[in-house]
């Protein structure tokens, strides 16, 4: 009797396990699969609803090419900057012998700043270093130093770089700190027992182990900046040609907008983001082999 009940219990347990995955599958269908199919089908029609491949051919127009280039360059610059300075800050948190309260404060701030973006971030930057921002006014009135007279502006790629770095650097810290903490003490002791200096330990042991994590995180930062829309829109008003802003113009339904062309541009972004995700996943698997 007991033996006959065992397969039934196993089947019920398996059914409950799959039932727990149901919300995930529903979420994936609603927000990944169905939108992707809509993008692909929508990119095959023009503004009049006629079947066409012109939308993909128009991706080679100068405006769209410049928008892709601007987005890629801005994303690459902020990813490299965030990865470099984020690694230095993460190193200081793990190995800098900081007071416990300061370490906690830094990690708490990074957790908040990594998720702070869009219109609130744009407003904060304008209120701080805009033409009438409090820091701009302090430098001009108290120190006689006018940053705008030197050509500084927050409404151009420089301003966007500063805005993106606000959430890129904390995101790097959140990811790299656990990786640094995963470096085993035995590896350093073994290197020191063989006569290695601290620099040699990092050059030949720690950094090679961390390289997949560093590269993967840099790719993640690139994808985070490449897909950003609200911050750039709120800060520049859509005047800077970034691919996300150009897509928004096409899909919003303006008189000159072409939703089909917007869908085609989104598919181009999907290809780039998919490549980033694939590369990140591959690098993470390599990192886990060492840090598990």
Plain-language structure description:
This protein is an all-alpha fold and 292 residues long. It has 2 domains: 1-42; 56-291, MetI-like fold (Orthogonal Bundle), CATH 1.10.3720. The chain has 12 helices and no strands. Helix 1 packs across helix 12, helix 9 (198-226) packs antiparallel against helix 12 (259-291) and helix 11 (243-251) runs antiparallel to helix 12 (259-291). The model has no long low-confidence stretch (mean pLDDT 84).
Helix amount = over 70%
How many helical elements? 12
- Counting structural domains, the number is 2
Q: According to CATH, what is the topology of the largest domain? A: MetI-like fold
What is the mean pLDDT?
84
Q: SSE order in H/E notation?
A: HHHHHHHHHHHH
Using only CA atoms, what is the Rg? 24 Å
- Please, what is the CATH homologous superfamily of the largest domain? MetI-like
Query: Any low-confidence stretches, pLDDT <50, length ≥5?
Result: none
Overall shape: it is: globular
Overall structural class, as computed from helix and strand content, comes to: mainly alpha
Could you describe the largest sheet, including whether it forms a barrel?
Answer: none
- So, CATH architecture of the largest domain? Orthogonal Bundle
Number of strands: 0
Q: What key attributes describe this structure?
A:
2 domains; 292 residues; MetI-like fold
Question: Would you spell out the secondary-structure blueprint of this structure?
Answer:
Elements: H1 2-42, H2 54-57, H3 62-95, H4 100-113, H5 118-129, H6 134-142, H7 157-181, H8 185-193, H9 198-226, H10 230-236, H11 243-251, H12 259-291
Helix pairs in contact: 1-12, 3-7, 3-9, 4-7, 5-10, 7-9, 7-10, 8-9, 9-12, 11-12
């Amino acid at each position: 009797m007991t033996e006959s009940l065992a397969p039934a219990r196993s089947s019920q347990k398996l059914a409950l396990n799959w039932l727990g995955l149901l919300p995930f599958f529903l979420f994936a269908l609603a927000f990944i699969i169905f939108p992707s199919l809509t993008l692909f089908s929508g990119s095959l029609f023009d503004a009049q609803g006629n079947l066409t491949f012109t939308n993909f051919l128009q991706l080679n127009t100068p405006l769209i090419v410049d928008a892709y280039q601007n987005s890629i360059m801005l994303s690459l610059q902020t990813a490299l900057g965030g990865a470099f300075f984020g690694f230095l800050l993460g190193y200081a948190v793990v190995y800098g012998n900081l007071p416990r309260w300061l370490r906690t404060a830094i990690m708490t701030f990074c957790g908040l700043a990594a998720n702070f973006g869009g219109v609130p971030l744009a407003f904060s930057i304008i209120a701080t270093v805009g033409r009438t921002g409090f820091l701009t006014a302090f430098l001009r009135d108290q120190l006689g130093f006018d940053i705008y007279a030197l050509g500084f502006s927050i409404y151009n790629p420089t301003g966007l770089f500063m805005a993106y770095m606000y959430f890129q650097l904390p995101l790097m810290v959140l990811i790299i700190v656990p990786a640094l903490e995963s470096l085993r003490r035995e590896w350093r002791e073994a290197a020191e027992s063989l006569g290695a200096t601290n620099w040699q330990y990092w050059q030949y042991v720690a950094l090679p182990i961390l390289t997949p994590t560093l590269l993967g995180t840099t790719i993640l930062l690139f994808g985070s900046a490449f897909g950003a829309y609200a911050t750039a829109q709120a800060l520049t008003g859509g005047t800077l040609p970034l691919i996300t802003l150009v897509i928004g113009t096409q899909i919003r339904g303006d008189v000159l907008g072409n939703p089909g062309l917007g869908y085609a541009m989104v598919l181009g972004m999907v290809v780039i983001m998919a490549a980033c995700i694939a590369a990140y996943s591959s690098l993470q698997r390599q990192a886990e082999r060492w840090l598990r």
